[in-house]
Specification:
This protein is an alpha+beta fold. It contains seven helices and 23 strands.
Length: 404
């Protein structure tokens, strides 16, 4: 075969990153999230403490703090943050005997303090009414007169997130005598052991991606820095704790939707459908399928040669959740009942520069040896994870049984 330039290379012949190759040779294997990252653009971490920023769109809702009469023009509110002069507030509408009555429109004249605003009542041809403490008034835009001065500027302040890089290392080795022994089957002991190291490397990164906790200290044994990253569970707990839920002894469709619905309040990629991926243990998968079966009717008619149902996604009014059974979750009785829901478009691996799975061979070159009568090597990866929108992700623990 002729090879002269990169244009001569067939698709997928050129060497890929470790994660990309992991997806290619093991697409349904033990580390689906890490393997998926190999198909996406990677980010670079410049320091062991990796910082990144996220911004969340703001929609202002003002809560009335103290009852106010229909003529009151100074309102006490729980918090005025997010308001500027000329913002427009809307009082919820009412229905009297089924007849719709528009709520009052209120224009903000001045934000007097953190808990007080001066307003213009009966704006937009509406009628003023008493306001009750606890009433929620959403801001619905703003209105400025002609030739008005520059309005007060506002900005969404980015939120800084920090995570540590995490060093993963796995090795393979065989004594030279064993390496010289011929086998009647297999690829040879050294090759088999290298394959095992590849499995352990991908598995360790995948497990840490879900469950690792941040640490930064000096290792007592070596005196060297030791740093680990926060995994998905830790980041959701710290940034969106209400998105971690525990299922009851049984879970109905209504209860399942109540746990999933808040995850669709925010989305990262508005160019695609509101979709999530749920990594599940086997019990969680069975519970979801049981909920689906109990939520509808299932009939078996004569001449059918197969029966049963297999649901691969959950469709709720606000989005779709693709179900993926995670092999590693099935290795632990608690993880078997767990569902980790991810908006994958907001998730990234960030590698320290030059640390995207390096392979160092030991004693492969006779001119360079450490004196050990063995051959092998070491895989080293240093990375961390980013979650720009943890509010769109969640975890459900202890899915045990479905119910009507």
């Amino acid at each position: 075969m002729k090879f002269y330039s990169t244009s001569d290379l067939p698709a997928d012949l050129a060497k890929k990153s470790f994660a990309a190759n992991y997806a290619r040779i093991n697409p349904n294997g033990d580390a689906p999230l890490f393997a998926l990252s190999g198909m996406a653009k990677k980010k670079t971490a410049l320091q062991i403490e990796h910082g990144y920023w996220s911004k969340t769109a703001q929609f202002t809702n003002i809560v009335i703090g103290i009852n106010a009469t229909a003529s009151a023009t100074t309102l006490t509110v729980v918090a005025s943050a997010g308001l500027v002069p000329n913002d427009i507030l809307r009082v919820p509408p009412t229905f009297v005997s089924g007849v719709f009555t528009a709520g009052e429109i209120i224009r903000v004249i001045e934000v007097a303090s953190a808990t007080s605003i001066v307003v213009e009542r009966e704006f937009g041809d509406t009628t003023a009414a008493a306001l009750t403490a606890g009433a929620i008034l959403p801001a619905i835009g703003n209105a400025h007169p002609e030739a008005s001065d520059k309005p007060q500027h506002r900005a969404i302040i980015p939120v800084r997130h920090l995570n540590n890089s995490h060093i993963f290392r796995n090795a393979w080795a065989q004594g030279r005598t064993l390496a010289a022994v011929k086998q009647v089957a297999g690829k040879g002991t050294i090759s088999e052991n290298k394959d095992d190291a590849t499995f352990f490397h991908g598995r360790d990164i995948e497990l840490a991606t879900f469950f690792s906790r941040k640490q930064n200290k000096v290792d007592a044994a070596t005196g060297e820095p030791l740093h680990t990253m926060d995994g998905i569970e830790a980041l959701i707990q710290k940034l969106a704790p209400t998105n971690i839920r525990q299922a009851g002894a049984t879970t109905s469709y209504t209860q399942l939707i109540a746990m999933l619905d808040p995850l669709f309040d925010q989305r990262t990629d508005s160019m695609s459908g509101n979709t999530r991926v749920a990594y599940c243990g086997k019990t969680a998968i069975n519970v979801i399928n049981e909920i689906g079966r109990l939520s509808g009717e299932y009939q078996i008619v004569q001449a059918e040669s197969s029966f049963g149902l297999k649901f691969t996604q959950i469709v709720i009014p606000r989005g779709v959740i693709q179900l993926v059974e995670h092999p590693i979750f099935n290795t632990n009785v608690d993880w078997q009942k767990m569902m980790v829901i991810m908006e994958t478009s907001q998730f990234d691996f960030a590698y320290m520069e030059g640390r995207d799975t390096m392979v160092d061979f030991i004693n492969e070159n006779p001119a360079s040896t450490n004196g050990q009568d063995a051959k092998g090597g070491v895989m080293t990866t240093e990375l961390t994870i980013e979650m720009q929108n943890p509010f769109a992700c969640g975890i459900i623990y202890d899915l045990t049984a479905g119910a009507i």
